[in-house]
Specification:
This protein is α/β, with parallel strands linked by helices and about 350 residues long. The protein has helices at about 15-20, 35-45, 60-65, 85-90, 100-120, 120-130, 155-165, 180-185, 190-195, 220-225, 240-250, 290-310, 310-315, 325-330, and strands spanning about 5, 25-30, 50-55, 70-75, 95, 145-150, 170, 185-190, 200-205, 230, 255-260, 280, 340, 345. The strands form three sheets. Strands 8-7-6-9-10-11-12 form a seven-stranded parallel beta sheet. Helix 11 (about 240-250) links the parallel strand 10 (about 230) and strand 11 (about 255-260). One of its GO terms (molecular function) is NAD binding.
Length: about 350
């Protein structure tokens, strides 16, 4: 059965797009990810069944404007750009693609860590400017402590390499047991207050809660040792960016590597752009060809499986039957939504 699918980006990796074409779906795109009005307009005008969500915000008003919308399938893992409360109220299912880009993000995280420790971006800019200053500063990572906020698939991959470098790895994650942490050679601690003072390098690998205050604020940054490095390939909302600018400017932090920002694209007048000790990248940590293909296929299959499994759709006989294996795989990708009370309000 053909569906109308909206991709909140200008393109989709060919393997995912091919699945949609084979199912004869109508595929719509948002040509400019900064054009929120275009996304809102398409949702109002087209009978969209599913959204393949990249990084654009999908809010309550958008969902309400599209009564045909049944599922939002995240091209990735983080869903802070999706109003989950509104999805619950509108009975719209939300899915993600856990693990599809874990290797890519882990490798990128390590790249930012190495670049920050040895000031690679600064040296590159100086050589291009005609300078040849062989400063002997920077941080040797062997013997230093890496702190990980979140110890899922990405964090575990980063930890493996850090341990091989001779780093100590300390993690905070409420879903990880001390036994699991110990088996992987890392130390589990209880909360940021215990973690941050130990970290020569802090790397974030946890979700952001929509509307919540930044996890890493001025007080948290002050707990880091002088000369520490912070890496964020998770979600920009996790860090108070002005507090980070202050810590990088006054010398408390040595460097930062940022792939995500509170507002994307990063504002042209953001003070982060002016700092020599920050490496900035445009939310591409998980965007290798291999990872993009995995996420596209996963997001598309999640959306189609959900649509095919709806009672009226199944009864029509106009779509492939959904197997028990497909249902089980889909359930592993489901994003939990807030509970709706009898009054129509939601609770976490």
């Amino acid at each position: 059965m053909p569906y109308t699918v909206l991709v909140t980006a200008p393109s989709l990796a060919t393997p995912g797009l091919e699945i949609l074409r084979q199912r004869q779906c109508e595929v719509l795109f948002v040509s400019d990810i900064a054009d929120k009005a275009s996304l809102a307009h398409q949702l109002k005008q087209a009978p969209i069944d599913a959204i393949i969500s990249r990084t654009m915000t999908i809010d309550a008003e958008m969902m309400k404007s599209c009564p045909t919308l049944k599922v939002i399938s995240k091209h990735g893992v983080g869903v802070s750009n999706i109003d989950l409360h509104a999805a619950a109220q509108q009975n719209i299912a939300v899915f993600a693609t856990p693990g599809a880009n874990s290797q890519a993000v882990a490798e990128f995280t390590l790249g930012l860590m190495f670049a920050g420790a040895r000031h690679l971006a600064r040296f590159d800019r100086r050589v291009r400017a005609g300078l040849w200053q062989r400063d002997g500063d920077g941080m040797e990572l062997h013997g230093k402590t890496l702190g990980l906020v979140g110890f899922g698939q990405i964090g575990q991959r980063v930890a493996q390499v850090a341990l091989a470098l001779g780093m100590k790895v300390v993690v905070v994650d409420p879903w990880v047991s001390p036994g699991v942490a110990s088996a992987q050679g890392v130390t589990l601690v209880d909360g940021l207050q215990a973690l941050l003072p130990q970290c020569n390098v802090l790397s974030l690998h946890c979700p952001a809660q929509r509307g919540a205050p930044p996890l890493i604020n001025a007080q948290a940054l002050a707990l880091l040792p002088s000369g520490a490095i912070i890496i964020n390939t998770a979600r920009g909302e996790l860090i108070d960016e002005q507090a980070l600018v202050d810590a990088l400017t006054n010398g408390h932090l040595a460097a930062a590597g940022l792939d995500t920002f509170a507002s994307e694209p990063l504002d042209a007048d953001s003070p982060l752009r002016q700092l020599d000790n920050v490496l900035l990248t445009p939310h591409v940590a998980g965007s290798t060809p291999e990872a993009l293909a995995k996420m596209a296929c996963g997001a598309v299959n999640n959306a189609l499986t959900w649509l095919d499994s709806q009672p009226l759709t199944e009864a029509s006989g106009r779509c492939p039957p959904v197997t028990a294996e497909q249902r089980a795989r889909l359930e592993q990708c489901r994003v939990p939504l807030p509970t709706i009370s009898t009054t129509g309000e939601t609770s976490a």
